[in-house]
Request: fold
Amino acid sequence: MPFSCCIIFKFALHNTIKHMKNLLTTILIIFCIAPLLSQKIKTASGDISVLAGEKQLSVTFGYENMKVHGYPTEEEFIKNKVKLREEHNPGSGEIFRSSWFADRDTVYAPLFIKYINQALPKKRKITVLRNNPDAKYNLHVQTLWVYPGYNVGFSQPSKIEVALKLYEIDNPENILWESKSPARIIAKVAPYKREERIGAAYGALAISMSWLLKKEAR
Reply:
């Protein structure tokens, strides 16, 4: 190959490698940032800055008409899981059914409250409690969809989709702020136990909500 051709070939190869590196960098940035963007709670209507200066906030949770990934209804999901467990170990199906509902009060809500209170800085501290008697406003967390995830050698974190709204406790019809719905939240970890995996998604939701309060309701 003539010397000039070698130079041209090397130059073209160098540019090709450079462009490939740039492309790979862009792909990696998108891959890393996309999950973070999906965690952001966005406003659909109202203004959450109404909480500016408030020291107390109440929170409630709703699960009506919630769907579970892969099933048309939550009822069908529970029916299937109970049947499978009863076939292998009689009695375990009903234990699953009871714990599925109990986890909402014993795991999900406590983790949300724990993490949002920890994440808010002391200078912008709002004490968040379930059914807080000292609060003027209530934040309602409505769960629309759940993906429980798994951890059986390979792991996949839980995901939830929620709708959030803020209203005055004495006037619940007056919605002061609403999130864009559905807001999808992905857990940061995937523990072995199902309730802890789903609970981790509510912890991630709490962190996302704390960012919004820090930014918009100082």
